[in-house]
Specification:
Elements lengths: L1 H6 L3 E6 L16 H9 L3 H5 L4 E6 L2 E8 L8 H11 L6 E8 H16 L9 E3 L1 H8 L4 E12 L5 H8 L3 E6 L5 H21 L5 E6 L6 H9 L3 E6 L6 H9 L4 E5 L9 E3 L15 E4 L6 H11 L5 E4 L5 E4 L8 H10 L6 E2 H5 L6 H38 L1
Helix pairs in contact: 8-9
């Protein structure tokens, strides 16, 4: 306990009710570690009056959660707390980074940039997806450590896997129903940045922090400009085509605090991927724009990348139960002949047939017909032989009867 108090003196405690409401004076105070041990772990008056309250630890402006309520907090796991404090403790020349992602803004603009890169002849590529793990590694400053990451998006998302991928990468997801052109998302993101700015400024940690904001929306200027005026550092990531001019003006005013970063200057595969796999039901296939690759053993992501280099257009892949692969070209309805020809020329190792041909009964070749006829002939001969034997046997029985 003494080593924790000595090495981590900036640890404070706040008591919050089970309804996330702060418990008022005298039950809401800030303590040092020693006070925390004396008042919380020894089941003080607060724990008796508020048995379901939660103890929140604040260290360097970062909120750490204790799993148990005050009533159940009987044994204090010092090793667990020390590990957490070491994780969040600032080291020499390392800044704490707080990440805020405007998912819709980055994803929509990414679709446009990806379609242009692939020369699809389309305005957007809806298959564009952010690889959130790679994205976090990309945006993390060289002298920074990501402490908290939050993703703001609207429902419905492009796919539920977006939220699942965020949670897998320890990104807190905040979802809002899509109303009024994403204004609710912008407002929530503005509030979150403002709250974090105030929290760090009051705690005296703003100088050691870097806010990494992924957006180009000018509505976020309301949160970023006050942050810069308080001396906070900001790394703003965006696509060139989506960056509001107001941020260029801010960058000129705060050259030492606001750094503008562009996704256009980074290889797009370093933080994204193409979702070739179709999510629609396999029995909803449109035969007018579908090609079947029977018994295709190539993984879909590898197959998709190979086909994308050959065909500069949008297509989707899906696999049937028997490993037959469906390739759908939604923008090529009734125009599959050139694709068939090039597919058979460029990818001769792939067997390709049309969907109607795939669903129709397989035609019988001459060998199969001969084998069937030969089998029928043998069967008929066998039946005739049995019939003649029966006749001969009946004749013998009749002659014997006459003799008797």
């Amino acid at each position: 306990i003494n080593s924790i108090t000595t090495n981590y003196p900036m640890l404070f405690v706040k008591i919050v009710s089970d309804k996330e409401e702060e418990i008022g004076v005298p039950f809401h105070q800030e303590w040092t570690v020693t006070d925390c041990i004396n008042n919380i772990l020894q089941r003080s008056t607060i724990s008796k009056n508020y048995p379901t309250a939660i103890c929140h630890l604040f260290f360097n402006g970062v909120k750490l959660f204790l799993r148990d309520t005050l009533k159940d907090l009987g044994i204090f796991d010092k090793s667990e707390l020390i590990l957490k404090l070491q994780q969040y403790s600032p080291t020499n020349n390392v800044s704490h980074c707080y990440v805020f992602v405007d998912d819709s803004n980055i994803w929509i603009e990414g679709q446009k940039a990806d379609a242009m890169r692939k020369k699809l002849g389309e305005m957007t590529d809806p298959r564009f997806r952010l690889d959130l793990g790679k994205l976090l590694r990309l945006i993390q400053p060289d002298n920074g450590k990501i402490i908290e990451a939050r993703l703001f998006g609207s429902e419905p998302p492009p796919t539920d896997s977006v939220w699942m991928a965020a949670l897998k990468n320890n990104i807190k997801v905040e979802k809002y129903v899509k109303l009024n052109k994403e204004k609710e998302v912008d407002t929530a993101m503005t509030v979150a940045i403002t709250e974090k700015r105030v929290e760090l400024r009051i705690g005296g940690y703003l100088d050691d922090a870097i806010f990494v904001v992924l957006t180009g929306d000018r509505d976020l200027r309301r949160a970023i400009e006050p942050l810069l005026k308080d001396g906070g550092r900001v790394h703003l990531w965006s696509w060139k085509g989506a960056l509001s001019k107001s941020f260029l003006d801010l960058a000129n005013e705060h050259r030492n605090l606001l750094a503008l970063k562009s996704f256009d200057e980074v290889p797009i595969e370093d933080f994204s991927f193409t979702a070739f796999t179709s999510t629609r039901k396999k029995y909803d296939v449109d035969p007018r724009c579908s090609i079947i690759l029977p018994k295709c053993s190539i993984p879909l992501n590898i197959l998709g990348n190979r086909l994308q280099k050959a065909f500069p257009c949008i297509f989707y892949l899906s696999c049937l139960d028997n490993s037959d692969v469906i390739v759908e070209f939604p923008n090529c309805i009734g125009r599959l002949d050139p694709i068939f020809k090039y597919l058979r020329l460029r990818f001769s190792y792939l067997n390709s047939i049309s969907y109607p041909e795939y669903k129709s009964p397989s035609p019988l070749n001459i060998t199969t017909v001969i084998l069937i006829l030969y089998s029928v002939t043998l069967l008929m001969r066998s039946r005739n032989t049995n019939y003649n034997n029966d006749i001969n046997m009946n004749s013998s029985v009749s002659s014997t009867t006459k003799l008797i």
